[in-house]
Amino acid sequence: MVDLEVEEQEGSRGSPGTEEEREQEPTNEDSDTSKKRKTTSDVWAHFTRKKVEGKVKAQCHHCGKLYLGDSTQGTTHLRNHLARCPRMKFKDIRQQVLIKQQNKVDGTMSLSNYQFDQARVRNKLARMVILHEYPLSMVDHIGFKEFVTDLQSMFKLVTRNTLKSDIFKIYDNEREKALKITDKNGSRMAITTDMWTSINKKRGFMVITAHFIDHAWTLQSRVLRFVYVPSPHTKDVLADVLVDCFLEWNIDRKLSTITVDNCSTNDAMIRLLLNKFDTSSLMLGGSMLHIRCAAHILNLIVQDGLSLIGDGIERIRDSVIYWTRSPKRRQKFEENARQLRIQCTKELVLDCKTRWNSTYLMLSTALIYKDVFSRLAKRETSYTCLPYDHD
Prior knowledge:
Nucleotidyltransferase, domain 5; disordered N terminus; 5-stranded mixed sheet; ZnF_BED_domain_contain; metal-binding; 14 helices; 44% helix
């Protein structure tokens, strides 16, 4: 503790003393003290104390220059040299030390050397974009550039095209790993697949996922393909996409089941697949290949029941659309909810018609604001889709 206080006092003195004081030869007592005292400043990781012509000097490890090194001289001048040392790999002394939390019971801290790696940080940036689905254009944003520069000035921020290239490299690397895993896997694989339509371009995509038990009896899942499927989505087109995927991953002889939505197109697609595969490699000659998605069947059952109150649901859906269409309407709705002292912070949410659970969430939230809809109907003449009481 004493050493730390002494070192802080030395650093706060700023630049070395007068010329006369600097040239003064240190006494034996000073010399002994400098030898015994433990140097706590991180500066001394880059300097070595030595006596030159009877004076204590600090020699830079990088360029070999000598500076005043007596304990009474402080360390500010040494830090200033490190900031502009031509032979020093890292310009900022703060980048030399990284404090890491060690996995110790007492939670003590320890110091370890830190070396900046441009390639490693680029990889982390690409993985961050993948994980959180950030837009590639974020590397062009001024705020992000300023943040990165202040955080790590040595990192050279990449362009969006380079970032895109880094992401593809990660994809190729992970794909190679997945190929090796599926190659070594000795068990059969259960396939789940579904179609997905993008909102903005209205294009259809197919997702194909494999599930299997590895050698350690652990359930593993791997997305094999996320691929654009051209229209029309006929049985032949869907079957061709699946066959190409199975052959690419060399799992056509390892299939156990294929789970798909319960629709006539998928039924016809499975029949086509059975004609394309060697049925002797399938379980029970392929009689167990087709599995109908239980979640989809449940959704069909619930949707059939909801059709009995379909008109009421439509009025509630139209009301939610009306009051969430613009920020001004949403604000007006929230103000009326506060005036009626409704203690709820949930926002109105629009459902997806084909997913019963999202319809349930929409209805349960709208029910809380039942009185708000009635109040606003008396004040807003353009609001004409007020649900009835029995709705």
